[in-house]
Amino acid sequence: MSVRLESPSSSAPVGMSTRASSRWAALAGVVSMAAFLASAEVVALVTGAGGSPLFGVGSAVVDLAPRGAKDLMVSLFGTGDKIALFVLMGVVVVLVTAAAGVGELRRPPVGKIVFGLGGVLALVAVLTRADSRSVDGAPSAVGTVVALLVLTSLTRKLSRWRATTTTGWAAATEPSPPLQGTPVERRSFLLVAGLVGGLSVVLGTAARAFNATRANVAELRRGLTLPAPAEPAEAVPAGASLDVDGITPYVTANDDFYRIDTALQVPSIDPADWSLRIHGLVDQEVLLTWDDLLALPMVEHHATLSCVSNEVGGTLIGTALWLGHPIRTLLARAGVQPGADMVLSRSIDGFTAGTPLDVLVDEGTQALVAVGMNGEPLPQEHGFPARLVVPGLFGYVSATKWVTELEVTRFADAEGYWTPRGWDALGPVKLESRIDVPLDGATVDAGTVAVAGVAWEPHTGVSKVEVQVDDGGWAEAELAESVSADTWVQWVYRWEATSGRHSLRVRATGADGVVQSERELPPAPNGAEGWDQHGVDVR
Ligand SMILES: Nc1nc2c(c(=O)[nH]1)N[C@H]1C(S)=C(S)[C@@H](COP(=O)(O)O)O[C@H]1N2
Ligand SMILES: [Mo]
Quick one: which atom of ligand 1 is closest to the CA of 396? Predict the structure, then answer.
């Protein structure tokens, strides 16, 4: 846009013509729009690329464009129809926001109304996308507020500038001093417009570029088909799921799976750029690309994953059907040298986990480089495209997400991310049990009440669960089935509840015969211990 300002120092009578002020007002509108887009992209860095209004509105327009318009675009621009569409949209948006800027100067609050409506439209476009989440509304909402603030501020500055030049004109019949206030007001408008516009272009472009990569990876993930397993999963017996309202499902849906990591930004990895390097105390380094990995025979295996930070009764645990290739065959291919006792796995984001080598090479342990979770590629926040899953070990010593390296080494020479931060180097999952229902503090009717939950000691298995009411004896609960010792197991105890206030406790016994101890321990340094307890009112 070429806009020229009448020189305030000219000796001719000067004032800001309607034309000039319109141009500056149009610029204010366009700068506000740039601020909207840029701040929205920056917010989308945190809330997820799917919330970008640029992307959302673009997709909505593509979806809503009438057939004829699409055909016309294709016939006019061929395969470049999407780019042409974006250019066209850009032109429309610049014209509308420029007009809104002029409207705001001449007939406030016309501009604010236009921006407000635009913001609502963006919000609707983003939130009506098939896979949108409510946080995806945040970028458009924040962007709209920022745009309104910028528009208000620039319009105010422009009005002042116009006022001073007008006075200047009135005063110009007096030879001196001409237009004293003008340079200040003018500078203030131009400075803010330039600063906001420049920052918007720089920050907005950078954030957009980053969000585009992420959206692209999400798209790639959606389009991916994983190979069928050479060794299919154990069939989940019908008896694995008890018919109890509110009990934790045997298999955790991906959307409900707990998430723990140190990543401020979920890494976006294009599988084509991914590789896994196995090195360290090995006979020969192995480098696997994504295609190499997918060409290997895949195993499907149910395993319960849990976090060492889980409190007694906590929810940082879940069970999924993992699809992957056994780590042990990859280590065998590299040839582990004598003296090694640990594999330090490293994530693209720098996180590391130190896993005992003997667990990884054990024939009876399905330790996987996993690529699938419950029948789909790993969700990005759970490690796409590849992560480790080791039954029986806490996540912090085994379950490296976005894994790119396995270094065969020794506990004496290396340590995982959490070890120097106060957590044990070894992290076997402890025997635990949890009451799901009735909820702690619930009121239930007298009569038969299903007291139920889950119990776990992955890789060892659970042989018995018992419930204690108040200070009574321990009564054995009914145990559901499980596909293997690597998963948790549901349990239920049908309690004949009598009115009054009662306390319920649960304890499990491992398949090795060890009973869950009464002692209470906090999560650090190697996992919480204690009996889960719920208080209930029976009426
Ligand atoms: N890259 C990376 N992988 C990681 C972590 C991490 O911080 N970064 N945290 C670990 C921890 S502590 C746990 S409990 C599990 C959690 O896996 P989830 O988020 O898929 O449930 O991931 C493990 N893998
Ligand atoms: Mo964890």
Answer: 12
Tokens of 465: 């669960």
Tell me if 322 CB under 6 Å of ligand 1: no
Rounded to the nearest integer, the mean pLDDT of the chain is: 90
- Could you tell me how far CA 531 lies from the centroid of its own chain? 33
Give the global pTM.
Answer: 0.74
Of 401, 402, 406, 430, the residue with max ligand 1 atoms within 8 A of its CB, to mutate for a pocket test, comes to 401
Q: Could you tell me if 245 and 197 lie in one domain?
A: no
CB distance 399 to ligand 1 below 6 Å? yes
Task: State in Å: Cα 260 to ligand 1 middle.
Answer: 5
* Tens digit of each residue's pLDDT (9 = 90 or more) over 310-322: 999 999 999 999 9
Q: CATH number for the domain including 296? A: 3.90.420.10
Ligand 1 nearest atom to the CA of residue 260, by list position: 19
Q: What is the pLDDT of residue 219?
A: 82
The pLDDT assigned to 216 comes to: 79
401 CA: nearest ligand 1 atom: 3
Model pLDDT, residue 184: 82
Flag whether pLDDT at 514 surpasses 60.
yes
The two tokens of residue 524 are 């650090």
384 close to ligand 1 (CB < 6 Angstrom): no
Give the three-class secondary structure for 432: strand
Q: What angle do CA 427, 323, 528 make, to 5 degrees?
A: 20
- Residue 59, pLDDT score: 74
* Residue-range definition of the domain harbouring residue 144: 18-212
Question: What digits encode the pLDDT tens for the residues 242-289?
Answer: 999 999 999 999 999 999 998 877 888 999 999 999 999 999 999 999
User: Which of 260, 346, 374, 376 to mutate to test ligand 1, by most ligand atoms within 8 A of the CB atom?
Assistant: 260
The counts of H helices and E strands in the chain are: 10, 19
Distance 223 CA to ligand 2 centre (A): 30
Q: Kindly report the protein residue whose alpha carbon is nearest to atom 8 of ligand 1.
A: 261
Dihedral sign from CA coordinates of 362, 481, 522, 529: negative
Which ligand does the CA of 399 lie closest to? 1
**Cβ(283)–Cβ(337) below 8 Å:** yes
Percent of the chain with pLDDT over 70: 91
Our count of domains for the chain comes to 3
Query: Quick one: which H or E segment has residue 383?
Result: none
Helix (H, G, I), strand (E, B) or coil at 414: coil
At 476 the three-state DSSP class reads strand
Shared-domain flag, residues 415 and 451: no
Taking only the tens place, the pLDDT of each residue in 60-95 is 777 776 667 767 766 666 666 667 777 888 899 999
- State whether the beta carbon of 411 lies less than 6 angstroms from ligand 1: no
- Among the candidates 178, 212, 246, a domain finishes at 212
Supply the pLDDT for residue 119.
95
